[in-house]
Each structure stands twice: as C-alpha cells, then as structure tokens.
# Entry
Amino acid sequence: MHDFDYQNGNLFCEGVDLNQLASTYGTPLYIYSENTIKDNFNRLSSALSDLDHRIAFAVKSNSNLSVLKTLNDIGADFDIVSGGELFRVLKAGGSANQCTFAGVGKTREEIEYSLEQGIYSFNVESEAELRFINEIAKEQNTIAPVAVRVNPNVDAKTHKYISTGKSENKFGIDFEFIEDLYLKASSELNNVKLRGLQMHIGSQLTQIKPFLEAVEKVSPLVKKLKANHEIEFFSIGGGIGIIYEDALASGKKEWWDNQDPENKPLTVEEYAKKLVPILSTLDIKILLEPGRFMVGNAGTLITKVLYKKIGAAKNFAIVDSGMGDLIRPALYEGHHEIVPLIKNTGETQVVDIVGPICESGDFFAQNRDLPLLQEGDHIALLSAGAYGFVMASNYNSRAFPAEIMVNGTTHKVVRKRQSYDDLIMGEEL
Ligand code: LLP
# Structure
C-alpha cells in the first residue's frame, strides 16, 4: 500500500498534486511520501509485535536526512555500511548506539569513528576484520561490540547482483566456520565483545521460501552460540521485496485481495506469520534490516519528455532524467512502472524511454506500451524511493535532482537541486 494515485486525472502524492511540484521545482525531481514511509514501518512493526524485535532501517537504500529523521522519530534503528552513513544518522538526530555497521571493507578511520561514537555493533565479515577491530579497540583502550555475519549458503533466487547469501558471494563467513570463530574470539581477542549473529541473504525477495530456509538453517546455530556466549541479538537482515510491475495498482488493498493466493507476492504479514514461530523459540532479540520495503514504494522520480524521435526500428521518448539519477534499469534491468502525471486513457504507443546520457544503457524502459506521450509531458517512474537517489552520479556533469518530502497537503524541499557550482565543489585548477 502507498500514497500515490490519480485524483481527478492528476497524479497525487498524498494530498499534493505532482503536476504542481513539477512546474514549481522543475525536473528531474524525486518525491517521497512521509505517510507511506511511516505506514510501512508501522505495518512491519505490528506484524512482528509478538516478537522481541528492533527494525534497523538499511540506510543505503535512502540516506536523505529527512527520510532518516522520519524513521528515527517513529522508533527505527539503523543498519549502516560506512562512516558516511553513520555521520548522516547522527545529523538526522539518531545515535551510534542505534546502529549496526555492516560491510566487508571497513577502514581504520571508520572503525575508530564508530568506536568513538559508541556503535551498537560491528557486523564483521571476515576473521581478518575481526582481528583488526580487536586491535583498534585495544589501542583505544575499549571493548568493541561485534556480531559475525554468517553466510548460510542459501539461494535467495533474486537477481545475481543482489544475491548475497551463497558461498560464492563475498559476504559473511561460511556457516561451518562460525562456532570455531566465536570460540577463538572469546578466548583470544580480549577487546571484542560478541554481541550477536547476523545474516542477510539478498534483496528484492518476493517469496517466503529462501527466508524460511535461511532462518531454519541458522536458528540451531543461534541456540548453540547463545548457550556458550552472551549474545543478545540475531539479525535476520533485510530483503523483503516490493511490487515494481504493478506499482500504482498495488497502492490499494483491493489489488492485494485480488491476487491469486498461490502466487501472491510476499506480504509482511505472511513473512511474520512464517518466521515469528521459529524466531520466538530462540529467546533472543531479533533485528531486521529492511531498506527497500520501507522506502521503495514511498518514492517516485518525475521527469519531462524533451523530444520524441521516430526511428526506423523504434520510437523513442527522450526525457530529462537518466541513468545518473536512477541506475536500476541500466544496472539490473530493473523495471519501474511509468505513468503520466496527467492521466491519459486514450491511444498508446510502444516506446523506449531514454535519457540524455551518452550510453546505450541509459534507458528507463524498452519496448514499453505506454499512453501516447507528447513533448513537454511529465511522467513518473514509480517505486523509486529505494536505491534511487542514493545511487545517483554526476556522470556527464549532470547535476543531482532535488528531493521533496510530502506530508498530507504540505511539502518540503529536503534536498536542493545541485547547481553548476556544486558540480565543481572541491576541485582546484
Ligand atoms: N542488510 C544488508 C547487510 C544489506 O546488504 C542490504 C542491502 C540490506 C540489509 C537491505 O536490503 P533490502 O531490505 O533493501 O532488500 N541496489 C540494489 C539493492 C542492493 C542491496 C544491497 N544490500 C537494487 O537497487 O536493487
């Protein structure tokens, strides 16, 4: 469910007409719904209400300060992957003791900074990293809280670039090495405290099976570790998928009610129903690290059709945004539903929606049957709230878009559009 829909033929986010935002602020423009973000958090939280749990928002999915503040204000914790993300959480009003720090390549500077700030846990991804954290903690005369990320060797059945829980992936430590490592750490490494165990098998999972397989496989390990060490949490990672193909329709409850029960996309209620009975037997705090589920369908990218080109093989609509603003189609052939800001129920045309960047991969859609578009029309790329702006680049020296947060009938620019001066900031001749 989300807060994007047509009202009298105009696309709205909550109570705000997106046509108006596009004409006031120009395009490309990211727009987020505060209500959708809060709803997603509350829905997941209430589905898990029988479980001792904390939701650590995966900051990498959307690190805009206002998004972080919105989530902090309603009780989220944070899953971070860099010193920069910790800095953002602090700026948004959060604290380091709400943060778990993941990632395979933490640097000395990042480890020192996190320790100084009082990080809740480092999620360690190799023995070498564990030893390095121990060494730095010793230098600082402190004890570093750590969890080890276990790689359960489970196939998440998602795009190969976002699958992380198989032995061939670079993430985590193999399942069979974990017990030994905890023993070694508790006897040899005096400046780390084993605080938990973590896993994350992949992203954009729309079926329960891989989650279930991973939780069933790792739960006995959690019990064993808990018996021998004072661990207090088990993080089951993120990964809950969202609806991309039917994004607009999936904003309404009826869409979900009409899905074929056999192939229904995973809901958080179903996720909780299947996992809570197993997790609650562990008698330990459960952490979750959702990113996409929390913000994916809460954001859209608005762009304008600059030109139409009728080619020998294809029709193109060239828009003023491209892979620099939203790289998911180019990088993962990610599908984003595209709808015009002014509803058009008439003629359709098969087109490629392409950007201005000098790369053939710079497309948002290929051979897509869309309502007939004219030059000057605005379109919305839906479900762009996660891994959208955060993956933007200035390639071709194109400035970053502005970002707007909508709340009811009001809105706020939460990040200004970049200027040409911003583009050369820090450079010297
Ligand atoms: N925890 C860890 C350790 C992760 O690596 C990730 C995502 C998450 C949590 C959050 O996963 P989520 O709930 O958002 O699925 N750029 C790609 C997705 C990359 C995911 C990276 N890790 C995309 O646009 O699909």
Notes: The chain is about 30% helix and 25% strand. Residues 34-292 form a domain with the TIM Barrel fold (CATH 3.20.20.10).
